[in-house]
Amino acid sequence: SGLTKIVFSGRLDTPGVDRVEARFVAAVVPGSKSAIVDISRVEFVASMGIRMFVSVARSMGLRQSKLALYGAPSMVSEVFEYVSLSEVIPIVATETEAIAAVRS
Question: Which residues pair with 5 in a beta bridge?
Fold first, then answer.
């Protein structure tokens, strides 16, 4: 099965999530393919962004597909650590690690 790669940039705050969420869900949930998300150009993640990733990961899990995030800048990493997001979604450094995480 193939793999979907998504790249996010900018701010995943309420307006940012409003802009991307419907397309993100449509791109990764229905196809039952696993997905990796490059977040190296994301400057900020608010609770809405975290909620979006968690809800997409759960929806994908119901279809036996996986989501992994990679390349988080340090400010974004700190937010993810604070909310223990890595307990729900693999958060890794590189694209190679993300591919390995969704294939495991």
Answer: 36
Q: Give the pLDDT confidence of 52-71 residue by residue, as tens digits.
A: 999 999 999 999 999 999 99
pTM: 0.95
**Beta carbons of 102 and 68 less than 8 angstroms apart:** yes
For the CA atoms of 17, 20, 22, 28, what is the dihedral angle to 10 degrees? -110
SS (H, E, C) 19-77: HHHHHHHHHHCCCCCEEEEEEEEEEEECHHHHHHHHHHHHHHHHCCCCEEEECCCHHHH
DSSP annotation of 10 = E
Q: Pairing relation of β-strands 34-45 and 91-92? A: unpaired
